[in-house]
Amino acid sequence: MEPDPRFTLANERTYLTWLSTALALSAGGVGLAAMPADVFLPWVRTALALMLVALSALAAGLAYPRWRNIQRALRAQTPLPPPALAAVFGYGVAAVAVAALCLIVFTALT
């Protein structure tokens, strides 16, 4: 049975949002890696950039399987799968933000 087009289109918008999120995370990681050498310690800057780019790859890589699983559930009229990776992205971005905040404050005080 074909699902209501509104649900299919909402699922597609969510898929595109995951891709937009992946692009933003990737841009943030590249931007962090491109910062001047005197901003943060080089290894810390690299670690934060790698975390952002890794989250980006995860978001982009899992966006389509999530879209596909939800589309199957909509067609079969079964419960939708839980957003299992939402916590990973939330905590991952929060960890990078807190680390960057601490580094900014530490750099400003020294």
Summed up, what is this model?
With 110 residues, the protein is mostly helical. Helix content is 80%, strand content 0%. The protein has one domain (5-109).
Structural class: mainly alpha
| DSSP, total strands | 0
What's the average pLDDT? 91
Major sheet, described briefly?
Answer: none
The first-to-last residue Cα distance is: 64 Å
Helix count equals 3
Helix proportion range: over 70%
> Which segments are poorly predicted (pLDDT under 50) over 5 or more consecutive residues?
none
Q: What does the secondary structure layout of this molecule look like, with pairings?
A:
Blueprint: H1 5-33, H2 42-76, H3 86-109
What would you say this structure looks like, in words?
- This protein is mainly alpha-helical.
- It has one domain.
- The protein has 3 helices and no strands.
- Helix 1 runs antiparallel to helix 2 (42-76) and helix 2 (42-76) runs antiparallel to helix 3 (86-109).
- The longest helix is centred in the middle third of the chain and has 35 residues, at 42-76.
- The termini are far apart.
